């Protein structure tokens, strides 16, 4: 037997204990060990039942990710689960920690299931662009009914033990040691003469409107196909004999394995885990971090404070007046109220945060003892420098001074202090207590342990932290500025904001760029345009002023009720603002442009080409260390569809030579904008991809 499975006897019960730390992934050795353990139990005189239980943190957390992308090895998981279910012995699963994907499918192949109250189960394969492929789509509906099973599969969500019991996935929830629980429960089943109870032999559930469910789930997925294909797999399980249903499930699973979406989602899965793993930080200890200061209590500052409070930090928030301080406290209280309603915190924790852990102050001296302070004030260099001068004066030695700037030069901010080594950029995304991305902007003199502390903060806040170098806009906003400019150019040339938004939402973005601008506030882009014009714009660059006129009329998007869209019927009931197209048409006439039509495909191709080109420049200049850093920034901060993996993974999939050829054509029309990234030209010349750079960085 494999050393991953320990075999023991407890009376008439054979216990197979899984020992594959840290989370008992279903590796080949574990699968073989389970197979051999079942053989041994069935040959062991007097054994009447088998208990499968995990040692350590989990029952089975799912597949072994180290086997992803490699040829499958026997015993295959679906065959193993069928073998477990077919055993003449009574087979029981005792579950704790997580039982996800194949782990839950193993449990469903057992005849009975018990779990501790803290256990969680789920079938998250859709997050990898797949469906459950080891019988999950066939067995779960027989226990829960079709609609509940589809909810679990198509969302990939994790379910707590009590809900799983109500759904019929777990037979008993009991506190205690999982192994002893399992032995006691199995013995009680034997004492009661309980029969074997294979799920595959249970009655098939009632059918639903399969086509309607498929279309609804496909629409909800904004182009992601794997959740919808769960419907077809379940349908096969209802309409066909069990063995044929399993075969249909497996065919769908294998077909999805060959899709671009599966490539994109696997890339996202691994990149999410790799993005915070920087060789330069190996062995570097972060500084102590418990008390955090926040300067500014607007939407961003209140969100940062909320995130820190929910992560267990003591927070002191500075505002300039008692009235502003009270408004900030109310914003934080509102955020915490939402967390309370969602079950993220208890009432006691909510009250303790507001009454004891959060302090709102109006003088800098109150920040003298913080370990790290984050300013979230107006995006203007002179304002930032004034704040940092005060922080330099009052903060203790070794305190980290961080700016939440979205664009400004962190080197210049650091140079205004006597301790530039303690200065770093921590660019949160609004709302900061909800959005997952944190750009950690490393200035020229930032100390390594300060960088490590930034990543530690991100980890404790459950953020996806990405290292960025200093430039205008860092990684995300620099790339955003470029692809948004490409959209503006298409508008001048004949597309409408609404055609562009529609095409990009069909591509998979949650919102198109003009709807996003309305959400963020058109005044933000207006301020950036005015700043850049004041600094001087290259005469060869195309510019337009129609959006400025919207702002001059007081239309800043959702917060004023009008922007590119009219929100008088509510934020979700957006309709085109009739004032916009006349402004655009007047701009075209003024610039002497004869508008032409754009197809949805051309809109997406140009928009994505601009995004990829600027991303390649960001990587080539070292602003982002690896292509995957760009991909994770766009995925977690800018609504890029996860199933496409990120802009540079998308570029690899569609083909770099073809994309470069398109850019070379675009360059003939506008050589100033379409200055092609040297890195992109180099990769095409060498026959390489962006993923080759990721692999080289990991080597």
TrEMBL record:
Location(s) in or outside the cell: Peroxisome
Gene Ontology terms for molecular function: (3S)-3-hydroxyacyl-CoA dehydrogenase (NAD+) activity; enoyl-CoA hydratase activity; isomerase activity; NAD+ binding
Record-annotated 3-hydroxyacyl-CoA dehydrogenase NAD binding domain positions: 291-468
Domain 3-hydroxyacyl-CoA dehydrogenase C-terminal, chain residue ranges per copy: 473-567, 603-688
One GO term (biological process): fatty acid beta-oxidation
Catalysed transformations (reactions): a (3S)-3-hydroxyacyl-CoA + NAD(+) = a 3-oxoacyl-CoA + NADH + H(+)
Keywords (A to Z) from UniProt: Fatty acid metabolism, Isomerase, Lipid degradation, Lipid metabolism, Lyase, Multifunctional enzyme, NAD, Oxidoreductase, Peroxisome
Chief localization: other
Taxonomic superkingdom: Bacteria
Statement: the UniProt record of this protein carries the keyword Oxidoreductase: yes
SUPFAM superfamilies noted in UniProt: 6-phosphogluconate dehydrogenase C-terminal domain-like (SSF48179), ClpP/crotonase (SSF52096), NAD(P)-binding Rossmann-fold domains (SSF51735)
Cited Pfam families: 3HCDH, 3HCDH_N, ECH_1
Annotated pathway: Lipid metabolism; fatty acid beta-oxidation
Family: In the N-terminal section; belongs to the enoyl-CoA hydratase/isomerase family.
Protein name: Fatty acid oxidation complex subunit alpha
Organism (species): Pseudosulfitobacter pseudonitzschiae
Encoding gene per record: fadB
């Amino acid at each position: 037997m494999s050393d991953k499975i320990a075999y023991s006897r407890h009376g008439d019960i054979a216990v197979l204990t899984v020992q594959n730390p840290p989370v008992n992934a279903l590796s080949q050795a574990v699968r073989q060990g389970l197979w051999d353990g079942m053989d041994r139990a069935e040959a062991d005189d007097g054994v009447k039942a088998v208990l499968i239980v995990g040692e350590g943190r989990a029952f089975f957390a799912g597949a072994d990710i180290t086997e992803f992308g490699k040829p499958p090895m026997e015993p295959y998981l679906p065959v193993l689960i069928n073998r477990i279910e077919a055993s003449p012995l009574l087979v029981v699963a005792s579950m704790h920690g997580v039982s996800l994907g194949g782990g839950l499918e193993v449990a469903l192949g057992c005849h009975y299931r018990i779990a501790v109250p803290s256990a969680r189960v789920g079938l998250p394969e859709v997050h990898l662009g797949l469906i459950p492929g080891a019988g999950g789509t066939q067995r779960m509906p027989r226990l829960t009914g079709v609609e509940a099973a589809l909810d679990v599969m198509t969302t990939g969500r994790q379910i707590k033990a009590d809900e799983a019991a109500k759904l019929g996935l777990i037979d008993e929830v009991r506190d205690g040691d999982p192994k002893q629980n399992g032995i006691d429960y199995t013995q009680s089943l034997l004492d009661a003469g309980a029969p074997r109870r294979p799920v595959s032999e249970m009655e098939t559930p009632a059918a639903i409107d399969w086509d309607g469910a498929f279309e609804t789930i496909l629409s909800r997925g904004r182009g992601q196909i794997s959740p919808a294909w769960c419907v077809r797999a379940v349908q096969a399980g209802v309409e066909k004999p069990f063995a044929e249903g399993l075969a249909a499930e497996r065919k769908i699973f294998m077909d999805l394995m060959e899709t671009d979406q599966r490539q994109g989602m696997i890339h996202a899965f691994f990149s999410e885990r790799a993005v915070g793993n920087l060789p330069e930080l190996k062995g570097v200890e972060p500084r102590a971090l418990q008390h955090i200061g926040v300067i500014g209590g607007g939407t961003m500052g209140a969100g940062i404070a909320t995130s820190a409070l929910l992560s267990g930090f003591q927070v002191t928030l500075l505002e300039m007046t008692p009235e502003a301080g009270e408004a900030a406290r109310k914003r934080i209280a509102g955020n915490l109220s939402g967390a309370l309603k969602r079950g993220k915190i208890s009432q006691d924790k909510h009250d303790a945060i507001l009454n004891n852990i959060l302090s709102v102050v109006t003088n800098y001296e109150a920040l003298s003892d913080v370990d790290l302070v984050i300013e979230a004030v107006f995006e203007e260099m002179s304002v930032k420098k004034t704040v940092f001068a005060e922080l330099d004066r009052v903060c203790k030695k070794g305190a980290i001074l961080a700016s939440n700037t979205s664009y400004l030069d962190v080197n210049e901010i650091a140079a205004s202090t006597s301790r530039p080594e303690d200065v770093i950029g921590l660019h949160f995304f609004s709302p900061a207590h909800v959005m997952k991305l944190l750009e950690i902007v490393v200035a020229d003199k930032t100390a390594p342990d300060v960088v490590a502390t930034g990543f530690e903060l991100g980890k404790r806040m459950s953020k996806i932290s990405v290292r960025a170098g200093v430039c205008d806009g860092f990684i995300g906003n620099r790339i955003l500025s470029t692809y948004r400019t490409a959209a503006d150019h298409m508008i001048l040339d004949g597309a409408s904001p609404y055609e562009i938004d529609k095409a990009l939402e069909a591509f998979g973005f949650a919102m198109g760029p003009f709807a996003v601008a309305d959400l963020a506030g058109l005044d933000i882009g207006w301020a950036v345009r005015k700043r850049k014009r004041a600094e001087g714009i290259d005469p060869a660059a195309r510019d337009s002023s129609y959006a400025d006129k919207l702002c001059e009329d007081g239309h800043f998007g959702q917060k004023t009720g009008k922007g590119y869209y009219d929100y008088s019927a509510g934020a979700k009931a957006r309709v085109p603002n009739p004032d916009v197209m006349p402004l655009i048409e007047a701009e075209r006439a003024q610039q002497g442009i004869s508008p032409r039509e754009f197809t949805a495909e051309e809109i997406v191709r140009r928009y994505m080409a601009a995004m990829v080109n600027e991303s390649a420049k960001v990587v080539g200049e070292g602003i982002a260390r690896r292509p995957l850093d760009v991909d994770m920034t766009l995925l977690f901060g800018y609504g890029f569809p996860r199933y496409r993996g990120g802009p540079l993974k998308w570029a690899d999939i569609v083909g770099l030579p073809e994309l470069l050829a398109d850019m070379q054509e675009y360059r003939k029309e506008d050589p100033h904008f379409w200055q092609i990234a040297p890195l992109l030209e180099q990769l095409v010349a060498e026959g390489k991809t962006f993923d080759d750079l990721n692999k080289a960085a990991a080597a």
